[in-house]
């Protein structure tokens, strides 16, 4: 039986829907989210040229520290008129050890080796959406609002693949699904936090 030594790696970024020419040098905790020319296929592979247009987040640390993790994580993020695309690659020297026990739509996906995405797209700090995908592509969704928390069936698109030295997740979050009624305009902000359960 595998020991359950779990570490959550967090990288907190704020995404700005601004052209890079408007904001030459964003603050350290902000990323200019680029508009992608085309929507990537959600197939668990980051081999499409469009991912080269995406912003890169790779300065992940262990929770509440500045300590980098032993296994690197790199995320690529961009948007189209329909929503946000996230692709993440997690280094894993022993892919056979990945835990992927949860079923798609289950409540325990977060207990597996997974990527977690928290999104806040409104002014209300109680409004938070969480999207979770494990290394086998199983999904979980949590929605927190002032009125309470619910766990709707995951409708977002996601896929995962496991390679020889890393595993990869791609997901698409449509704007309506994160509480936005329209495509963000220049200057609008979406708070996004990525975490890896290892």
Protein traits:
single chain, 198 residues, mainly beta, 7-stranded mixed beta sheet, 5-stranded antiparallel beta sheet, disordered N terminus
Describe this protein's structure.
This protein has 198 residues and is mainly β. The chain has no helices and twelve strands. The protein has strands spanning 8-16, 30-32, 55-57, 73-79, 83-91, 114-120, 128-134, 139-145, 148-150, 157-162, 166-174, 189-197. Strands 2-1-12-6-7-8-9 form a seven-stranded mixed sheet, with no helix packed on it. A hairpin with a 2-residue loop joins strand 8 and strand 9. It starts with 7 loop residues before the first strand and ends with a strand.
Question: How do the strands and helices of this protein lay out in sequence?
Answer:
Elements: E1 8-16, E2 30-32, E3 55-57, E4 73-79, E5 83-91, E6 114-120, E7 128-134, E8 139-145, E9 148-150, E10 157-162, E11 166-174, E12 189-197
Parallel strand pairs: 1-2
Antiparallel strand pairs: 1-12, 3-4, 4-5, 5-11, 6-7, 6-12, 7-8, 8-9, 10-11
Low-pLDDT parts are 1-24
Order of helices and strands: EEEEEEEEEEEE
> What is the number of beta strands?
12
Question: Strand order across the biggest sheet?
Answer: 2-1-12-6-7-8-9
Q: How is the main sheet built?
A: 7 strands, mixed
Q: Number of helical segments?
A: 0
What overall geometry do the principal axes of the alpha carbons give? globular
Distance between the termini: 16 Å
Radius of gyration: 16 Å
Structural class: mainly beta
Could you tell me the mean pLDDT?
83
Share of residues in strands: 35-45%
Helix fraction bin: under 10%
């Amino acid at each position: 039986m595998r020991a359950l030594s779990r570490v959550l790696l967090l990288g907190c970024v704020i995404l700005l829907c601004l052209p890079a020419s408007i904001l030459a040098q964003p603050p350290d905790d902000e990323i200019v989210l680029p508009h992608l020319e085309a929507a990537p296929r959600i197939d668990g592979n980051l081999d499409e040229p469009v991912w080269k247009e995406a912003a890169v987040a790779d300065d992940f640390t262990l929770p509440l520290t500045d300590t980098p993790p032993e296994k690197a994580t790199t995320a690529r993020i961009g948007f189209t008129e329909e929503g946000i695309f996230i692709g993440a690659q997690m280094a894993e020297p022993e892919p056979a050890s990945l835990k992927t026990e949860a079923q798609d739509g289950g409540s325990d996906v977060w207990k597996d080796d997974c990527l977690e995405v928290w999104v806040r797209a409104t002014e209300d700090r109680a409004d938070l959406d969480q999207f979770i995908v494990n290394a086998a592509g199983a999904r979980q969704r949590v929605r927190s609002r002032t009125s309470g928390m619910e766990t709707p069936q995951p409708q977002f698109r996601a896929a995962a693949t496991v390679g020889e030295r890393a595993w990869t997740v791609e997901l698409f979050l449509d704007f309506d699904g994160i509480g936005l009624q329209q495509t963000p305009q220049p200057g609008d902000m979406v708070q996004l936090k990525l975490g890896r359960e290892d």
